[in-house]
Every structure is written in C-alpha cells, then in structure tokens.
Amino acid sequence: MKKLQLLGNITPAQFLRDYWHKKPLLIRNAIPGFKPLLTFSKLAEAATKNHVESRLVTLSDGQWDMQHGPLTELPPRTQREWTMLVQGVNLFDEKADALLREFRFLPDARLDDLMVSYATDGGGVGPHFDSYDVFLLQAHGKRRWKISAQQDLSLVEGLPLKILSNFTPEQEFVLEPGDMLYLPPHYAHDGIAEGECMTYSIGFRSPSFQEIGEAFLQFMADSIDLPGRYADPELQPAKNPAEIPREMLTSITEELNKVRWDEEDVTVFFGEYMSEPKHNVFFTPPAKPLTVGRFMETAAKRGLKLSAKTLMLYRGKHVFINGESFAVSRADKIVLDVLANERRLTGEQLAQGSDDVLEALYTWYSDGWVELG
Ligand code: SIN
Ligand code: CO
Asked: Which end of the chain is more exposed for a tag (fewer CB within 10 A), N or C?
C-alpha cells in the first residue's frame, strides 16, 4: 500500500504497526488546504433534529454542564466556553461521508461515524479519555490539545460528563485547519478552542464482548431447534416434593448441550449485527419511485450507489446489508462485493447481476438503501 499524506506520509501498514492502539500521532497538514465541510448554521440546524444525536457542553464558573439534543437553543456565539457536538454527520452530509471513507484502510466494520464539534473560545469537553481510537481533524480555527499517557483514569464523581480527576498533560500541540491527531483508546486528552473552532472526530466501533454475547444469544434463540419435550418414564416417588430431581436436571443439561453453533452461525450473526443501522437512522425512500422497468433502464445508464446511511458488509458467500443477510451464488457475489467495497456499481457491472440481484437492488432502491448514480 502506498504512503498517505493523511497519515503523515507513512503507509497504512506502518501506521497500524507503530501507532494503532499504541501511541498518539500528530500529523501536520494531513489534508492540505482543508476547508470545513459544513457551516456553523448547517450544523446548528442538524442539532435541532430528533434523529440527529447532539450534545451541548458548557462550562460556567468552573461548573461543567451537559445537555442532550435536540438542541433548539444555543448560547450566543459571543459567549465563551461552550461546545456543541453533533454525531453521525456522515449520515446526512455527502462530503462528510466522503471524508469518513478516506479512512477505509480500516475495515468498515470498525469505522463508526464522523462527529463534528463547534466551540467558542476556551470551549471543550474537559480532560477525559475515550474507549475508542479517534482521529481528531482540525477543520476550522485552532484548538490546543493536551495529552497524557497517564494510568490514573479516575473520574470526577457526580458530573454529567466524564472528567478526569487528575489530569497531568505530558505533551501539547496547537492544531490548525488540516492538522490531525490520532489517539489510541484510553489516552487522556483535553482540547481547548483558541478562538472559535471546529473539530471533526473520526470515530470507531468496538462493541463490548458482553453486548455481542447478549445479541448472539438473541440471534441463537431464533435459530435453535430442540424438538421434543421433557419426559420421565422412569420417575421415582418424590421424598421431598419441593426438591428438583437430579435426573431431571441431568436430562435438561443434556438437552441444552445440544445447542451448538459453528463458524457459519457466528458469521451470519456478526454480519447482521454489524450492518444493523443505529436506532436513530431512517431511510428516505424515493419521493416518486420509478417502475422496475424504468429503474433498470436508468440504472444501466447512470449506475447505482449505496445511500450514505447504508451499511453493507460481506464474508464468503454471505452478504449483509442494513441488518439483513443473504447467501449468494458465486456470480452474484462478484457484483455484490463490488457494490459493498466501491459503494457503487456502474451500468456495466450491474449488467453482470442475475435477476435475483436486480430484484434485490430494486427493493433496496424502493426502501432508500440504494440510489441512482
Ligand atoms: C471535541 O471535539 O471537542 C471533543 C473530541 C474529543 O475529545 O473526543
Ligand atoms: Co475525546
């Protein structure tokens, strides 16, 4: 793989080997001439929406406060020390989606979203740590980052947000537009706006094992098959009627031990799980959907692309899209793998798809998962 300016002129392999999960990396001029993708007013408008996750963090007289969106009212921009954070900007802004996809040297199953923060002078969310890796791209104005590898991650109790009790910065940098800072999980940091500023966070997904386990057992509930019913032809008279007979438990244990899963079950579960859109994501079907015939004609000319909200993954013959899974033929797999990787299909590529694939694409188009190119 080639060297990326985005990573400070090292290759993704070098970055993953030396920095990922290991140590911070400051990249000056990661994106030369970078300009903010959306204005303050567009961001503020997004924060008023129900389906957009947003927060307002204020600091006044040394008191931290946090309010969850929708944010109908913001402090004046002339007031110091407040921050508005908007999650999932990539879901409603095409340019933000394109920026997030610059990070596809990492698998889609790990990429989460693009969060945008706007802060007035002195604003920030306080010294804290995150459980995930993050790339902090300075989009507008300046922000001073103080960071620390400290082991003491104790938090101030009783606050509406995570603030480290004892933050001891070890390094600090002032980031300007186009500069980027990578931080591994659990690395203490505090970013303070110097004048009005905007910072974009490229965030990652790493579900907890507990969360995965619970979801997996729910998935298995739909797929286990244990025929028959408990029976005890050899039953003995009960001496202590309230006591569960040992034989009964033995037989139940034996039956439950028949619940098995293999790699295929795990693949289908995990693909469906990781491609499930977040609860606040709603697809917008086309206002005037074309008929199948017109759709096929138009798609043959213009091609197709996935909606920015669509999550599409695959493994082997299994294709996953927005929480649904399909086992596909070898020929269809070629077409669908291209769609998943490129997030678009040309008319020529589309022509390779079977009737099944075309039918699925039409359904996805009708649901707003896929759009005409
Ligand atoms: C911010 O953009 O203000 C906060 C980002 C972070 O520290 O994770
Ligand atoms: Co953070």
From this structure: N
Query: Which tokens go with 260?
Result: 């098995």
CA angle 165, 170, 176 (to 5 degrees): 105
- Do residues 7 and 30 lie in contact, with contact meaning Cβ atoms separated by under 8 Å? yes
What span, in angstroms and rounded, lies between the C-alpha atoms of 155 and 153? 6
Q: Which phi and psi (to 5°) does residue 183 adopt?
A: -125, 135
What percentage of the chain has pLDDT greater than the value 70? 100
Pocket of ligand 1 (CB under 6 A): 83, 117, 124-125, 130, 134, 189, 191, 199, 201
Helix, strand, coil % over all residues of the chain, rounded to 5: 30, 25, 45
User: In the block, which residue shows the tokens 């293999």?
Assistant: 262
Domains of the chain, each with CATH number or no CATH: 12-204 (2.60.120.650), 209-221+261-373 (3.40.366.30)
Whole-number Å distance between alpha carbons of 150 and 189? 10
When the pLDDT of each residue in the chain is averaged and rounded to a whole number, the result is 96
CA-nearest residue for atom 5, ligand 1, is 201
What's the CA-to-centroid distance between 335 and ligand 1, angstroms? Answer: 39
pLDDT tens-digit readout, 10-24: 999 999 999 999 999
Residue 64 makes CB contacts below 8 A (sequence gap 6+) with: 57, 58, 126, 159, 160, 161, 163
**Contacts of 304 by beta carbon, 8 Å cutoff, 6+ apart:** 339, 344, 345, 350, 361, 365, 370, 371, 372, 373
Enclosing H/E stretch for 64: strand 63-68
Give pTM, 2 decimals: 0.93
Determine contact, residues 191/132, Cβ cutoff 8 Å: no
